[in-house]
């Protein structure tokens, strides 16, 4: 399941969808244009969401994504005329990508990051259109529909949200910045849509612009602070560090990508040009924190050291080891140490990372640690397929650890190798197991609607009473 | 929750044969109930059991798998008077097998040699032993399915394949050699032999089937800590998610026949010695070649006075294995065994030839276990300290190696499993096995395998060679419910269906009509898949 | 010394805390013993541990984990009734030879009980076990010194050594330096 985090509703207004005439260009696009579109689609990572990775065909949709309000299924965006976007004109395509409006006029949910793609230029949209019309294999298979709980299922409810939160259009280049920085911003804020995950969301699930790139929850994972703050962000990283990370999905003895970021590396970043990666890095490294750290201290990349608690239980039997004080260490040794080393030092070639000097164990929260344990890591890179198996409820879990065991294990890792200030409870584990924190926006919306309905009824009653009352008075007066 | 007491197909045993057939049948839409004598444990526990064992006993794989009282299996620690297997005869049929959910692939090395066409026609070609009920080309597609099911890696170069006669490539490439194997390969070449990569059920370079790739922790035997090696435990969760019911700590003690002499039900004891009965339309015994015949013999009744499926009197007979001799070689130059998986290469061509009319073939494998645990106490006993001690441990670790010669054995009706007078914790009879490897195999050691092995040791620059004084078994249990077209001389047919009972299948090592020299597991699984196909057709027709 | 390959886990064998604790107590005991050679230090637990580590470091000139030492001394206390005396006696032999390394004094340990005990201590650290018998007590597996002598080439079984299919390595000659540990 892919996890995304956007949804919103303001007021449920019913709006009959208006049908747009299908005007499809019959022209042949040049190979150069299609290739340009292919590259931009890669940069935009369309394939990550619009493909069911369990055997589905590229861009044919069908990927179920858990969101805080329910499951959203991605659509078929191959040029299939029956089940895809084969009948879309270029303006219709542009509106879908940049405004979140389908050809039939219905609104898309912001699981589709149109608020980011809104900045894409007409030229780039043109290239993307050429690619999707003539560079993608049509797949004549219907993707399942999305059905969210009321009132989210009323797509027109997006209209109000869009009015508040959708940007109006492309960014103008900043003349004070280099061409590279502007290109970087265009890609980072647009196609690569970093802020979709890395920016925290408000009550209405909109990105909080004031805390741009300061970190956000993405389903079961946490997209960390990537501002240039020297402690909480990636201010300690050099340009080369960030480019290496984007190209390979890892930075030795500092961090590695998992969850949605692993997909972004696999399908998108590792295929971008050196120049574009440098541009993105130049831009991202310029983004400041809204709450910069005044006092220097350890970052999430340099905490912890090699250590073990083996003498507490080695030679005393597994049953004894699992109980009591050393259970976290015992669980670690039994399940994790074969790859990550008995001192958590990893392998000398770094393929299996150390768990100290590792952002996964020393972030400002423990979400990624818990998620890595439960979900594993799966990342296709130029150097091969990086794979850590899961330890949750999956059929291929090496061992299925329950919430108490995961909490015990996580606390051991945090204490011995990571952020010693954090503690994990079994309840925290369950939240991650469920796919991340639920939004209460559905409940609130329903309460809001109910309350609104109650108010409306009350108002109507009152009006009715008043009207009747006045008539009575009038009657009396007239007699 | 209502306990299930019946299913379309009842499978006794949750080892590799049982889980492969179970999945085949579930995918074909049948309900499946599996009954396992032993417990279901986590990989974490097994790994730690082994790490917690003293260094000197780490060679005893059973330390990682302490048996439950109701499901005994042989252990290295058992006192002779408490032994589970009652062994008789000039050669020991001592075995290691695991009565746990997941079976013995928990501790196998993963070696996955196929038979060759000649291996299946010993009688026609060499006048010894038995021919199989079908030829290699019939079995070949089932080998392909097995290799893809378990995730088996092997070389793409036909010159390195065993055998090269195959209709599909391996799903994954071969694994890198240790320094010792690189050197051993060079030495074998000087003698005219090809030391080739072992085909093995181990994820090579990539994850496969949702399991990670091998990281060379050299622990395959007794357990792969990361499930890069295929073992049947990895199937259990998936089977349950597909709807299988798996009963554990449930020891089947009786197979019940009805008036038409079809199998009606099986009965099992739980760990509280309570009996339960499970009925079904079709039954599969998947406990391999020792526990299957034991169960069939225990199940004798008026209709089947010699045991269920035993009108041929072949149940329990023809017990086979791969008798092996080990050469522990100390070399002047370092080899360094222990990098990579524990069995990673071998010389197979010596298993084939016309000499098989006279004596057994043999396969030579370079045991790639890390040597520290084999040499540490010997080094300490030399009274060394300080730098000299460090140097000696390092030297012995680098310069000692085990070369194992594994032989084929002919089926002999006198090599026989019967029910002994002794009983186990549940009161069930302990199996008694009479075993004699036979002159055919002894002659091989005398005139063929040991001379070759000694030449190999010499070419390695050995300064010391120790040879096992007697044959040990390779723990590849075969025979016991042998396959054949003639119901008078065999227990099961070409689909591993019991000749006597059309709804009873007994696939696995017990059905094998010849042993060849290579490990038996993927042949067992190929037979299981073939039986599975037959079961699916049969259930459709039923 | 610099040309010796590093045991891959060497730098990370001891946590800073345990190393400091261990070293401090060894140093303190050493100073006391040097100042008062005839003083018989009472056999209280903490003192025995310290002495045991001191003896172990004399017999084995490598970095030794105090946590593992604690496990060994637990068994030593049970198995050897005159443990404190034996510790004192052997340490005394080492001091009388101004021993820096074990080769300086080992031959001078009297044969019999003391020599046997010294061998037992060495065997415990190298094998991680109290004996080569089936009922041996296991003090450590991962940190047994036998594995450190070959850590540049061979893994500790059940622990991975490299990424997928990346374990190819040269045949290291016997003349190559011993890993540092």
Describe the structure.
The complex is a heterotrimer of chains A (479), B (542) and C (181). Chain A has helices at residues 31-44, 46-49, 90-99, 114-117, 122-134, 158-165, 179-191, 194-198, 239-248, 259-268, 274-284, 318-322, 327-335, 337-340, 359-362, 367-375, 403-417, 426-433, 441-478, and strands at residues 2-3, 64-67, 70-73, 216-218, 221-223, 250-251, 255-256, 377-381, 384-388. Chain A has 479 residues and is mostly helical. Among the domains of chain A are: 1-152; 310-433, Cytochrome c-like domain (Cytochrome Bc1 Complex, Chain D, domain 2, Orthogonal Bundle), CATH 1.10.760.10; 448-479. In chain A, the strands form 4 sheets. A 3-stranded mixed β-sheet of chain A has the order 1-2-3, with no helix packed on it. In chain A, strands 4-5 form a two-stranded antiparallel ribbon. A two-stranded antiparallel ribbon of chain A has the order 6-7. In chain A, a hairpin with a 2-residue loop joins strand 4 (216-218) and strand 5. In chain A, 50% of the residues are buried. With 542 residues, chain B is of the alpha/beta class. Chain B has one domain (6-48, 59-90, 97-541): 3-Layer(bba) Sandwich (FAD/NAD(P)-binding domain). Chain B is 26% helix and 17% strand. In chain B, the strands form 3 sheets. In chain B, strands 1, 2, 5, 6, 7, 8 and 16 form a 7-stranded mixed β-sheet that branches. Chain B has a 6-stranded antiparallel β-sheet with strand order 4-10-11-12-9-15. In chain B, helix 4 (136-150) packs across helix 11 and helix 8 runs antiparallel to helix 9. The longest helix of chain B is centred in the C-terminal third of the chain and has 21 residues, at 439-459. The model of chain B has no long low-confidence stretch (mean pLDDT 97). Chain C has one domain (14-148). Chain C has 6 helices and no strands. Chain C has helices at 16-35, 45-59, 66-79, 83-96, 113-127, 145-148. In chain C, helix 1 packs across helix 2 and helix 2 packs across helix 3. Chain C is globular, with a radius of gyration of 18 Å. Classes of the chains: A mainly alpha (479), B alpha/beta (542), C mainly alpha (181). Chains in contact: A-B, A-C, B-C. The interface between B and C is large, with 63 and 52 residues.
């Amino acid at each position: 399941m892919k996890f995304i985090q956007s949804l919103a509703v303001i007021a449920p207004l019913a709006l009959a969808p208006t049908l747009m005439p299908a005007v499809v260009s019959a022209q042949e696009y040049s190979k150069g244009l299609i290739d340009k579109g292919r590259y931009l689609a890669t940069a935009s990572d369309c394939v990550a969401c619009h493909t069911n990775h369990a055997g589905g065909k590229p861009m044919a949709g069908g990927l179920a994504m858990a969101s805080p309000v329910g499951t959203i299924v991605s659509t078929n965006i191959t040029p299939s005329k029956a089940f895809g976007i084969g009948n879309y004109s270029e303006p219709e395509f542009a509106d879908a990508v940049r405004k979140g409006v389908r050809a039939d006029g219905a609104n898309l949910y912001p699981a589709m990051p149109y608020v980011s793609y809104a900045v894409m230029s007409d030229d780039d949209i043109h290239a993307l259109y050429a690619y999707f019309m003539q560079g993608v294999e049509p797949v004549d298979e219907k993707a399942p529909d999305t059905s969210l709980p009321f009132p989210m299922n009323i797509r027109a409810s997006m209209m109000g949200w869009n009015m508040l939160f959708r940007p109006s259009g492309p960014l103008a280049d900043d003349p004070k910045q280099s061409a590279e920085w502007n290109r970087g911003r265009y890609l980072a804020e647009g196609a690569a849509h970093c802020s979709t995950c890395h920016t925290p969301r408000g009550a209405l699930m909109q990105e909080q612009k004031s805390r741009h790139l300061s970190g956000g929850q993405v389903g079961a994972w946490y997209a960390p602070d990537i501002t240039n703050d020297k402690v909480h962000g990636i201010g300690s990283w050099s340009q080369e560090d960030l480019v290496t990370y984007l190209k390979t999905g890892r930075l030795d003895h500092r961090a590695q990508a998992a969850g949605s970021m692993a997909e972004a590396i696999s399908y998108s970043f590792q295929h971008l040009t050196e120049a574009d990666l440098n541009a993105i890095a130049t831009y991202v490294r310029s983004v400041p924190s809204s709450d910069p750290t005044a006092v220097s201290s350890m970052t999430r990349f340099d905490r912890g050291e090699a250590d073990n608690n083996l003498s507490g239980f080695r030679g005393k039997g597994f049953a004894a080891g699992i109980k009591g004080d050393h259970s976290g260490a015992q669980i670690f040794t039994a399940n994790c140490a074969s790859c990550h080393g008995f001192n958590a030092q990893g392998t000398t070639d770094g393929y299996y990372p150390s768990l100290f000097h590792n952002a996964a164990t020393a972030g400002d929260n423990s979400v990624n640690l818990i998620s890595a344990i439960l979900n594993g890591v799966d990342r296709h890179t130029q150097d091969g397929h990086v794979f850590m198996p899961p330890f949750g409820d999956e059929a291929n879990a090496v061992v299925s650890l329950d919430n108490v065991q995961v909490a015990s294990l996580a606390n051991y890792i945090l204490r011995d190798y990571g952020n010693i200030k954090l503690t994990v409870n079994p309840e925290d584990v369950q939240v991650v197991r469920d796919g991340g924190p639920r939004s209460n926006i559905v409940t609130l919306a329903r309460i809001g609607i109910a309350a609104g309905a109650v108010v409306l009824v009350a108002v109507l009653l009152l009006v009715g009473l008043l009207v009747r009352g006045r008539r009575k008075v009038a009657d009396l007066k007239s007699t | 929750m209502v306990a299930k007491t019946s299913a379309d197909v009842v499978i006794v045993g949750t080892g590799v044969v049982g889980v492969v057939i179970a999945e085949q049948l579930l995918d074909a839409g049948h309900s499946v109930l599996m009954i396992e004598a032993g417990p279901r444990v986590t990989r974490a526990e097994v790994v730690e059991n082994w790490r917690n064992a003293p260094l000197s006993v780490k060679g005893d794989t059973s330390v990682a798998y302490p048996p439950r009282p109701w499901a005994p299996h042989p252990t290295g620690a058992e006192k002779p008077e408490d032994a589970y297997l009652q062994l008789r005869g000039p050669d020991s049929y001592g075995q290691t097998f695991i009565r746990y959910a997941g079976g013995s692939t928990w501790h196998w090395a993963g070696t996955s040699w196929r038979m060759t066409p000649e291996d299946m026609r010993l009688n026609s070609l060499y006048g010894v032993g038995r021919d199989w009920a079908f030829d290699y080309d019939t079995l070949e597609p089932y080998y392909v399915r097995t290799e893809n099911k378990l995730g088996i890696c092997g070389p793409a170069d036909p010159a390195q394949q065993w055998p090269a006669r195959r209709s599909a490539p391996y799903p994954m490439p071969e694994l890198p050699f240790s320094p010792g194997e690189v050197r051993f390969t060079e030495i074998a070449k000087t003698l005219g032999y090809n030391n080739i990569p072992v085909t093995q059920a181990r994820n090579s370079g990539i994850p496969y089937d949702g399991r990670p790739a091998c990281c060379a922790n050299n622990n395959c035997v007794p357990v792969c800590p990361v499930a890069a090696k295929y073992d049947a435990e990895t199937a259990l969760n998936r089977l349950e998610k597909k709807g299988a019911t798996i009963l554990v700590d449930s020891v089947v003690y009786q197979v019940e026949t009805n008036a038409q002499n079809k199998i009606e039900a099986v009965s099992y004891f739980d760990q509280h010695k309570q009996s339960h009965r499970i009925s079904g339309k079709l039954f599969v015994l998947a406990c391999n070649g020792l526990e299957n015949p034991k169960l069939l013999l225990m199940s004798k009744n008026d209709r089947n006075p010699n045991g269920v499926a035993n009108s041929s009197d072949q149940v329990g007979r023809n017990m086979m294995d791969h008798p092996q001799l080990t050469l522990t070689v100390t070399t002047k130059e370092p080899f360094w065994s222990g990098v990579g998986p524990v069995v990673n290469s071998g010389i197979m061509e010596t298993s084939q030839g016309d000499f098989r009319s006279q004596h057994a073939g043999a396969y030579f494998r370079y045991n790639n276990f890390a040597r520290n645990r084999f040499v540490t106490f010997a080094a300490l006993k030399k009274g060394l300290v300080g730098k000299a001690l460090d140097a000696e441990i390092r030297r012995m670790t680098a310069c000692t190696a085990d070369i194992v010669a594994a032989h084929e054995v002919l089926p002999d009706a006198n090599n026989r499993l019967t029910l002994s007078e002794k009983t186990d914790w549940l009161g069930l009879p302990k199996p008694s096995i009479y075993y004699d490897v036979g002159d055919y195999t002894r002659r091989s050691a005398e005139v063929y395998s040991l001379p070759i092995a000694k030449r190999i040791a010499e070419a390695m620059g050995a300064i010391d060679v120790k040879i096992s004084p007697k044959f040990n078994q390779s723990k590849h249990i075969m025979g016991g419910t042998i396959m054949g077209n003639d119901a008078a001389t065999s227990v099961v047919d070409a689909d591993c269906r019991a000749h006597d009972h059309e709804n009873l299948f007994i696939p696995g090592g017990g059905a094998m009509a010849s042993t060849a020299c290579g490990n038996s597991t993927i042949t067992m699984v190929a037979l299981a898949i073939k039986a599975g196909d037959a079961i699916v057709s049969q259930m459709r027709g039923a | 010394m610099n040309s010796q390959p590093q045991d891959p886990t060497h730098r990370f064998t001891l946590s800073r805390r345990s190393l400091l604790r261990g070293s401090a107590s060894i140093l303190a005991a050493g100073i006391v013993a040097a100042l008062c050679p005839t003083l018989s230090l009472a056999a209280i637990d903490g003192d025995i541990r310290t002495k045991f580590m001191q003896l172990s470091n004399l017999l084995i000139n490598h970095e030794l984990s105090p946590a593992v030492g604690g496990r060994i001394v637990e068994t030593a206390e049970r198995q050897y009734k005159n443990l404190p005396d034996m510790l004192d006696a052997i340490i005394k032999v080492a001091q009388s030879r101004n021993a820096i390394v074990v080769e300086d004094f080992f031959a001078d340990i009297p044969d019999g009980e003391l020599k046997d005990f010294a061998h037992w201590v060495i065997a415990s650290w190298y094998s991680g076990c109290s004996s080569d018998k089936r009922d041996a007590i296991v003090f450590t597996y991962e940190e047994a010194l036998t594995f450190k002598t070959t850590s540049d080439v061979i893994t500790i079984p059940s622990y991975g050594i490299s990424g997928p299919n990346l374990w190819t390595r040269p045949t290291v000659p016997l003349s190559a330096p011993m890993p540092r540990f």
